[in-house]
Amino acid sequence: MEKFFNFQDFKYSIRDLTRSYKKISTIIFTLFISLFVLSIIISLEYSLKKELNSNAKILLGGDLEINTRNEKVNDEYLNQLKKLGDVSSTVEFSTMLADSKKQNAKTFFIRLKAVDDKYPLYGNVESFPKDALNLLQKTTNSIVVNKKIFETLNLKINDTVYIKQSPFKVVGYVETVPDLGRALLFGDFAVVSTNSFLKLNINTLGSFINYEYRLKAYNESLNIKDQVINLTKKYPSYSVRFPENSSNNLKKLIDNFSQFLSLVSISAMLIAGIGISNTLISFINQKNISIAIMKSLGFTSGTIKKIFYFEIFTVLFAISIIAYLLAVLSVPVVNIFLSKTLGIAVHSEFVLKNFLKVFLSGFLVVVIFCLPTISAIQQIKPSSLFRNVFQSCDFYFNKKNISLIILSIVGLILLFALDSQKPLYTVGYFFIFFLICFTLYSLSRIIIFYLRKIKFINFLPLRLAVKNITNPKTIFPITVLSLGLGVTLLLSLTLVGYNFKKEVEKSIPEIAPDYFFVSIQDTEKDKFVKYLKNNDPNTLIDMMPIVSASVTKINKKDPLTYIKSTNDSYWVLERDRRISWSDVPPKDNPITEGKWFDNNSKEMQISLDAKVAKDLDIKLNDTLSLKIYGRDVEGKVVNFRKVDYRDLSINFVILINPKFAVNIPHEYIATAKFSSAINFKEGTFLQNFKNISAIKVSNYLGKITEIVNKIFIAVTVISSVAVIIGLMVISSAVIVQARLGIYQNLIFKILGINTNNLISASVIEFLITFFSIVFIALLFSVGVSYFVIESIFRLSWSLEIVNSALVLLLIGILTVVLILFNNYRFLSPKVYPLVRNE
Amino acid sequence: MSDLLELQDIHLNYKTESTAVEVIRGVSLKINSNESVAIVGKSGSGKTSLIMLIAGLECPNSGKIIFEGEDISQYSEDRLADIRKRKIGIVFQSFYLIPNYTALENVSLVLEINKVADAKKKSMELLEQLGLKDRINHFPSQLSGGEQQRVAIARSIVLNPKLILADEPSGNLDSENSKLIMSLLFKYCKQNGSSLVLVTHDQMLAKECDRIIEIKDGKIF
After folding, report:
1. What is the rounded distance in angstroms from the CA atom of residue A135 to the CA atom of residue A122?
2. Concatenated DSSP letters of A399-468
3. pLDDT at A184
4. What is the per-residue pLDDT across A555-564, written as a single tens digit (0 to 9) for each?
5. How far does A385 lie from chain B, in Å, by closest CA?
6. pLDDT > 70: what percent of chain A?
7. Contact list, A19 vs chain B (CB under 8 Å)
8. Least confident interval from A217-226, A365-374, A749-758, B29-38
9. What average pLDDT does range B23-51 have in this prediction?
10. Could you tell me how far CA A537 lies from the centroid of its own chain?
């Protein structure tokens, strides 16, 4: 049996590679781009997660965090905690910040963080001036705002801003705080001292207030985790968080995003794989004579194949290293943008496991696409050297090849699925990809079958085109496959990009309110309505009661023990939610299953968001335990509603029956749509209602737009890479076809068929190829883009016919130009070298 | 002289989609060690098919090919390749050197794959003997037809094979180069004790061989 590795064969492969690398430049280029993109995504994801894990205590703000929701901690409990370590208490709540008390005051809806002198227990607050936090503790009624507020309101140190009409002196601004919460991650915030906060005399029911206590153990070796858990058992309304859960939301965001980008980059790599197989078959056909000579000298097909495998894997190995190293070096560049957006500084690092993943992805793609290509060497006969007739070889499939290809595909799917938070999405994605391949291949075979049935064609170029498509050595299926996949990917990304752009440019919906108002107390409800109506009699006001509640049990079982943090609806369980009640179903929340509340029942009945119910596997008549004001109440799920949070009206995950809720202390949330929003002055409103926060919908949308815009940029960059690879693949397919036709063109030339006929035949052949794939490409790209927009990014999808048609037209024109350009030199071959077999 | 190669009642068919063409019809012949044999015949008579059978590049539909006492007619492609590698040298009409290998590399390749020590040195010496000292690092495209064929001859004889098969080796050369090439081929075959099977149209050239076999419609006369 032949040795697997033979140094002599390896030497031949290196010799051949150094002399023929120009002929495989497409392989080198497409492999490099796709591996580089994949490397960047993998490196960045790793660096971000490593940063989150290694800074878990900093991100949490302590060794552990006790959340007492909207109530202050019990003094006895606090004293017990203080025996274990340093305790820092913070209070967060949502409120309005204004730059003056005037009617035309500029306002910001912020998350206000009140901190004590122990804050932060871990990490540093980056601020200007550097001691801004110390000044905060020393100066009464002082505030540090985030940089965006500081710049937008054009503030200066020692300026005054107002919260609930109380003046606060600005002693600095803050760039980032170490304990990133979800609210602070993308929203605006400000920091005050606990003493200043107490002076605000917050007297609302606290739907939007949150008390948190963080502990840093005196001695790191002490196992405070168990002690605090035991201590907290007496206080069931308190929840404890540990460093490993400190940044679940951020991790989830990174997971979702990196999964999407990884799948796009692996698509680019798979399409590059088609280009690789096209280029490689062309390379082998160009080396047809050399291979035949080697065989005549006594090389076996196996040895020659081995030499080619060595060549391609050497290229792959070298490119993987270069691509990965460049990607690692690029991480600091990306960090410039990331540190501003997420407040996390990532560091580049060479990680062997990541490199192996990149290399292995490339290896599997190369194996999948090179097996049938390199195996084609088997078809080359040395006897052709005697007859001077060389047949071009074709992709070669046998049972062994097919088994290896299937194994490699499974390996590739496992490589990405096992490493992903949503393995099913990954598997589904690959399934769709290979389904598209299968559909396109079948289509090409059907077209060949029917074209073969046409016997008489008078128009010469059409006859030549049909002959080219139907001849036994046709590469029509591979052209359909590469062009089809390229067009499908381009169309899909166009539609994804368009829908992102639409979201970015989206104007506020007609029916959307102008303002949200939160923290409306029962006592000021009527005054609030009257004020708005006086301001504008045509104001449409929608008001709902709210109360904080958390889901503690589903069917008597703690959901956090069996529902993973990667679940799409984990957010419902993670913290307190605001719930409400209503006599009738909300008009924009249609019931999808079950019946509305039974008004005669005094027991708690629950109406749930249908999507959340599905994610958490909650059925009708299941029981949910809700903790309201520290008391567990059990209720039955009686219906599911379709809730669309994007309509910007008041939407609740959980609604309960009014008959049960009537005696629960509560406050209100309201929306208002004015006939003319310009007449509403936030400054005047704040003078009258210092406890109510007004959130301008257009500002809120601006925040979303900002985030979506960043995602759009990333999608566009990745799409551009896919576009480049797609075009190269199409180009390589065209070159392969043109090169194969060179001898035929010579014969045609000798027979007197002019170049115009040959050009017309090429164009007709392309048109047959292109129009056969358009419908399938459109069908799949609509499906894929719909899935990406609606299911992954949860935006609304719509079909854009004009842009899609434009993309198709552009691809068509570009490909025709490529065909003519690439065909030109092959259409008029020089007769002498060809007839002499040079 | 002992038997090197024996063909016993060889038949070879080429099948097309609709028909089967019998190109070799019951050929039997013997080739001895150190013997030179010319195969002559018109175009399409079966000369090339016969030489391909001898080279192990085609397998007969029936009959036996005995090489050094072993029936190789049913050998696998890889075993035939191994015999070719060690024992047969081939010279083609169109030279067929590996285009991206230098003259030296084309020749030393044969020694390298047979794991012969000092492959480069031995190849260089041979090329010098063939008058190609200044051409050893040239690629085939940088050589004239005559030079290319000399490199091809060097490649075929460098391992001292038992059998050299030459298919119209001077067919693409002018008369001067043709003479030079053929004299080299005969000289080295004699010198190394190799048998030579020469396919040619040239009766004069054929007469220089020990024996002439004429083939017509796939049969030997």
Report:
1. 19
2. HHHHHHHHHHHHHHHHHHHTTSS-HHHHHHHHHHHHHHHHHHHHHHHHHHHHHHH-----SHHHHHHHHH
3. 47
4. 999 888 888 8
5. 7
6. 86
7. 100
8. A749-758
9. 92
10. 45
- What is the three-class DSSP state of B158? coil
Is the predicted pLDDT of residue A649 greater than 50, yes or no? Answer: yes
In this complex, is the C-beta atom of B23 within 8 Å of any C-beta atom belonging to chain A? no
Q: What is the model's pTM?
A: 0.74
Whether residues B82 and A292 touch (CB distance < 8 A) is answered with no
Indicate the helix (H) or strand (E) that contains A110.
Answer: strand A107-115
What b-and-e string marks burial along A62-96, b requiring 16 or more CB atoms within 10 Å of the CB?
bbbbbbbbbeebeeebeeebeebbebbbbbbbbbb
Inter-chain CB proximity A290 and B99 less than 8 Å? yes
Phi and psi, residue A554, nearest 5°: -120, 120
DSSP annotation of A74 = P
Structure tokens at A756: 């115009």
Q: Which of A42-46, A241-245, B187-191 has the highest mean predicted lDDT (pLDDT)?
A: B187-191
* pLDDT tens column, A50-94: 877 777 777 788 888 888 877 788 999 999 999 899 999 998 887
pLDDT-derived band of residue A197, with 50, 70 and 90 as boundaries?
A: confident
B17 touches chain A (CB under 8 A): no
Euclidean distance between the first and final Cα of chain A, in Å?
37
How distant, in Å, are the alpha carbons of A299, B58, B64 from that of B75?
A: 15, 11, 11
Sheet holding B219-220, edge to edge: B88-91, B163-167, B195-199, B36-40, B211-216, B219-220
pLDDT band at A314 (very low <50, low <70, confident <90, very high): very high
Q: Among A19, A289, A293, which would you mutate to test the B interface (most chain B Cβ atoms within 10 Å of its Cβ)?
A: A293
Spatial separation of the C-alpha atoms in residues A317 and A314, rounded to whole Å: 5
Work out the average pLDDT over B47-67.
91
Complex ipTM value: 0.91
Q: What is the mean pLDDT of residues B179-202?
A: 90
> To 5 degrees, how large is the angle CA A787–CA A791–CA A793?
105
Q: What is the DSSP string of A772-815?
A: HHHHHHHHHHHHHHHHIIIIIS-------HHHHHHHHHHHHHHH
For the CA atoms of A644, A646, A650, A653, the dihedral, rounded to the nearest 10 degrees, stands at 40
Nearest to A476 by CA among A752, A195, A773: A773
CA A280/CA A373 separation, integer angstroms: 7
What type of residue is A767?
Answer: L
| Cα distances (angstroms) measured from residue A633 to each of A137, A652, A823 | 41, 18, 76
Four-residue CA torsion sign, A465, A466, A469, A473: negative
SS3 per-residue string spanning A357-391: HHHHHHHHHHHHHHHHHHHHHHHCCCCHHHHCCCC
Separation between Cα atoms, residue B73 and residue A522, nearest integer Å? 103
Instruction: Check whether A626 has a pLDDT greater than 50.
Output: yes
Cα–Cα dist A643/A607, whole Å:
11
Q: Which residue of A has its CA nearest to B57?
A: A383
Distance spanning both ends of chain B, measured CA to CA = 23
Higher pLDDT among residues A322 and A514, named by residue: A322
pLDDT at A316: 95
Of A19, A293, A383, the CB nearest to B57: A383
> Residue A720 has what pLDDT?
67
Interface contact flag, A293 B84, Cβ < 8 Å:
no
The answer to whether the bond into A178 is cis (omega within 30° of 0) is no
Q: B43 vs chain A: nearest CA distance in angstroms?
A: 11
Tell me the pLDDT band of A248, cut-offs 50, 70 and 90: low
Looking up tokens 């008078």, which residue turns up?
Answer: A458
- Residue B135 pLDDT: 94
Does residue A120 have a cis bond before it (omega within 30 degrees)?
yes
